[in-house]
Every structure is written in C-alpha cells, then in structure tokens.
Amino acid sequence: MRRSAVAAALVASVVAQTTITDDASVASSKSFDYIIAGGGLTGLTVANKLSAAGKTVLVVEAGPNSEDVTSVNVATARGGITAAECNWKYDALGDDGSALGWQIDSGRCLGGSSSINGMVWFHPTKPEMDALKNLGNKGWDWNSLYPYMKAVEHNHLPNDAQRADGANVDQGLHGYSGPVNVSFPDAMRIPDAQRLYKAAMPLVFEGLKLSDDLSDRDNSAMASTSWTIWNDESSGTDVVRRSSAAHAFLYAEDQQRSTLTVLYNHKVLSVTFDSKIKATGIQFGPSDGGSIMTASAKKEVLLASGSLQTPPILERSGVGDADILEQFGIDALVDLPAVGRNLQDQPGTGASALVNDANATNTELIDNINLFAPVISLVNMDELFGSNSSAKGAALTKSINAKAQAAVDAGTMVSKKSAQAVFGAQANLIVRNKMPIAEVVGESYPSVMTSVFWPLLPFSRGHVHIASSDPFASPAITPRLLSDDFDVSVAISVAKKAQSMFTTEPFAPVISTAYVDLPEGASDDDWEAWYKKTAYAASHWLGSSSMLPREYGGVVNNKLQVYGTKNLRVIDASILPMPITSHTMPAAYAIAQKAADIILGKDKSVN
Ligand SMILES: Cc1cc2nc3c(=O)[nH]c(=O)nc-3n(C[C@H](O)[C@H](O)[C@H](O)COP(=O)(O)OP(=O)(O)OC[C@H]3O[C@@H](n4cnc5c(N)ncnc54)[C@H](O)[C@@H]3O)c2cc1C
After folding, report:
1. Model-level pTM greater than 0.90?
2. Is 488 annotated as a binding residue?
3. Rounded distance, CA 254 to CA 331, Å?
4. Is residue 167 within 8 Å of 224, Cβ to Cβ?
5. What is the number of other CB atoms lying within 10 angstroms of the CB of residue 550?
6. Distance CA 141, CA 125 (A)
7. Residue 508 phi/psi, 5° resolution?
8. What φ, ψ does residue 441 adopt, rounded to 5°?
C-alpha cells in the first residue's frame, strides 16, 4: 500500500531507501551483481527477492514512474491510462507487415502490465502446470509453482454483503500474507446482472456449473471475479486501488532496499557479451533515443521485458535466427531460431444486448464502473460443443501433425518436432483433461449487457522480431490470431452461444434487443469473418522465449538460461510455451519467485 509523504519521510530517516530515478548517472558505467531489463511484474518481483538477499541490482525500465498517476493507481480509473502514462500501444501487424488496424496494449511504466491490466485474479490448474514438466522442464510443475501463487497473495475475505451479492472464496486455496492484495470490490459490481449471467450460462453451455471460486476447479468453472485490488477507506471515499507489482514489491515501505537501483525512462537495447558469450552487462539509452551507455553485471543479466520485448533484446544482442539478424547487420553469436516464435495470445470479441427502458437506470444491472469482468465462465469442450464434443476431440488429436506443419510453414514454430510437442500437450489438456477452451465474461456498460469471450487454449501462433537496425525502434509483432481452424471453430461456437444467451428466459425481463451484427441464419463463414474483423488480443501474451529443451524449440532451459550463452536468463512470462486457462498474473508471479530462488541456488528441483 502507498506511503504517505510523512510516513515515507519517517521511514527514510531510519532505513535506506530503494533508489528510483530517471537520472542515468546511477547506472552509466556502473557495475551491479544483477541487471534486470524491464521493471514490470516479473522484473520487480525478482529485483525485490535478489536485493533482499543482499545482491546489488539494477532495474532498467523503458517507461515512466507512474506512482502518482490516478488512472494507474485507482482501479476504477483504468480506462483512462494513456500511452505516455503506461502503454506501449504497439501496432498489430499482418503477415505482409501492414498494420491490422488494432493496437496491442502492454504496460510501459514501473509495474509493467500489472500497472494497466484488468487485475482479474484466479489460478491456473494442476494439469497445465504439470504439462511444463512433461515437456522436458524438470522442476516445473504444480507442486513447485502453486506455493508461489499463494505466497504472493494477500486475500481479503469477502464480508456478508459481498457474499450476498455473489462473492465467495475457497479459503484453503489462497494466501493471506503476501504483498499483492486480492479482493472483491466493496460494493460488488452489478449483482443483478451477475445473477442473470449465472442463471443463463448453464442454459447455453450445458453442463457448466456455478463454482465457489474461479481458482477452485479441476477444469471448467463459473464464479464472481476477485481482482488484485484493495478497498482504501483511509480517506473516507472508498477508493478501489490497484495492487500492482510496483506497489507490492517496489513502493511499499517494508520493501525498501539500499541494494536496489531502479532507472526508469531508459530502454535496454542489447546485452553485451565477452568472447565466450558470457553476458557482461547491457547497452541502454533514454527511451526516446539519445546517447548509448553501458552498465556491467558482475553476476548475470536477467531479461524481464515481457513476451513482446524480450525477444527483440536477444536479437539485437546477436542471439536469434541468424537469417533475421543478418537482415539488420547483426552478427549471430548464437543461432537460436526459436527466439520470437511461438508467440501466442487469445483472440477476444463480444456480443451485446440493449437493456429495456424499465432497467435503464438500474445500477445493479448496468453500470459505468471500470472493473472488467465481474463474472467469468470457463467453458470446456463438452459444454461448448455438446454432442459433437467427442468427434471434435478426435479430429483435434488427428490434426496435430498438420497444425505443426502449418506453423512451421508460417514461420511461427521453429520445427515440426517442436510444434508437435507443444500442440500435442495442448490437445491432451483439451481432450483428456477437459480443460476449458473458452472464457466468457459477463459484463455491462451504460445501456447494454455485454458478453466478452475468447478461445482459451488457441493453437494459432505468431511471431515478434526486430524490424529495423535502429536499436530504439519498436519490434514487429505479428499475432496471427485465429490462423488455426480449431481456434476458429471454438470462436464461432462461443460467439453464437454467447449471443443466444441474451434471448434466454433469465434475460427476458431486462433485455429489449439482442444486437446481432449478422443477419438471421448467417453462415459459419459470416461468423468467422465477423469474429476476425472484430477480434483483438486478450493481452495474455506468452511463448516467445519458450522454456523447452533446445531440440524442441526452446530459447531457455529449465533454469531459464538462454541456450548458447552464460550468465543470461529470461525471467518473464515469455518462457511459458503454451497458453493457460487462467489470466496470466498468478503464473507470472510464480515464475518470477521461482526464478529468484533458482538464481540464488535455493531451488534444487531444477538440478
Ligand atoms: C491490458 C492488459 C490486461 C491484462 N489483464 C490481466 C488480468 O486481468 N489478469 C491477469 O492475471 N493478467 C492480465 N494481464 C497480463 C499480465 O499483466 C501479464 O501477463 C504480466 O504482467 C506479464 O509480466 P511480465 O513481467 O512478463 O511483463 P510486463 O509486466 O509487461 O513487464 C515488462 C516490462 O518491461 C518493460 N520493457 C519492455 N521493453 C523494455 C526495454 N527494451 N528496456 C527496458 N524495459 C523494457 C515494459 O515497459 C514493462 O514495464 C493483462 C495484460 C494487459 C497488457
């Protein structure tokens, strides 16, 4: 939680503070035990843990320090976050390199995407985390990752009023003493609408059941959402505040470290190596361009710039596909073609219905509060495809080879063997473990009920690479959302069902018109075209520095070390090789804490 000025001054007088500055002289030509590229969710978590162990740490963050920016700190003001405050807003590109017309949100300030994200908090499942180990990553499974998800969490249990409006927590699953606050808002959002969604969803997704808690699931689930927020009643105004990685691990009074230096508004351009390809430090410069400086790492350089920026740093450093590097005059120190491939996110869109006049001002049903996704359903293939489920599952399993070949042909996976391994593991989760394959969010905005949805375990893959020899230039991000047939069939089914939900009996008393962008009896081709036209990324980017054996398309090994190099690791969400069925924060916090333990030699499970 934030310090008051007085408290900060008192603390400063008795303990050393973390240095947070945009003055490059703290880093230029200086030496640290560890240098971390990126002050986002994972970077700040690892920095906190290493500096607590007495190591000197430099974090270099490209964006500003938005500690005092209201839209970043007040959870319900989130809609107003500007690019300058904290958002890269990259252009999404098509295969031909042209802009697709939508932008990719990604946090660009201290706290990274945890400073702008939707704050939804629930855990992934055991089979998904165990799949990491089965893919050849010793020491990475549910039993090793789940304790970190609990450790980071400070769950505030709901009160009676919140419970009456749908909040619930399976208490044994959560943590209560971590630095990241997790709670329901006080008061709950749109409780009447939540009841309608909970009643209607099982009618269109047969078999779906109401759960205690989104984290309490073997596979599918439906429940009210808790967020990484806390209800700040200190000013008497009941402000709902964001609990970002910056608040949890950097600004908090009890997390101050004299061993930690955080330089913001500066971009890491590349990693420097000695002749044995051992990382020795970084090159960096002011984010808007200017003179290039260096800093040295006595122990290691750690890349935490996220799924969309860690691969470009590797490529600029000479680690990547030699053919791509050559185009930009970069010598390949390590020819590692997997860098920047296997990029993945979930393609989201929505369906709406107009609320009737009698309910136009009913704030229990529709409101204008920006806390996204008050009720969430995670739907598995039986619930989505009904009696076609078995046939769809069999066809999916049979199609893995063809999918793998298509991904190699599109340049999104490094080899057929790699794609088969990853896609095969994903198909197992879908068919055998009945993991959810679609997320359906129950929302409202002024005058409309809106359901937002996306396929959860997509097979579509894209890529991110450098696109210029200018070290300050943005990367080229080619998402290729919905380039896979199975993803398209999931998307069409979930869209049709979500649309039909507004014509079910529970919604009848409150809806005047269900909006349909398509004519009655529209074909699947029409639905596909509509979905592709309206889709955007759900912002759960993963995969572009995958943790896999090198021969299976890995960029890093199970100790997160970049293949072919020494003293260089990737510690961010880009190491996850497959999509997951929760939102990504709990897994990202787990990766970061485990990374710190591996670096400090405390985690023996990976040896
Ligand atoms: C709009 C949005 C909504 C989301 N909603 C949710 C949600 O509701 N729930 C959930 O669980 N997850 C959500 N996520 C995802 C979650 O926030 C991310 O998965 C997580 O933050 C990833 O952590 P990271 O450390 O890998 O990357 P980030 O947190 O993005 O951190 C990367 C940091 O590196 C910095 N950086 C990049 N390039 C450089 C460079 N060259 N030099 C220096 N610094 C650099 C960036 O500015 C950024 O601060 C959302 C994400 C977004 C963008």
Report:
1. yes
2. no
3. 45
4. yes
5. 16
6. 10
7. -50, -45
8. -100, 135
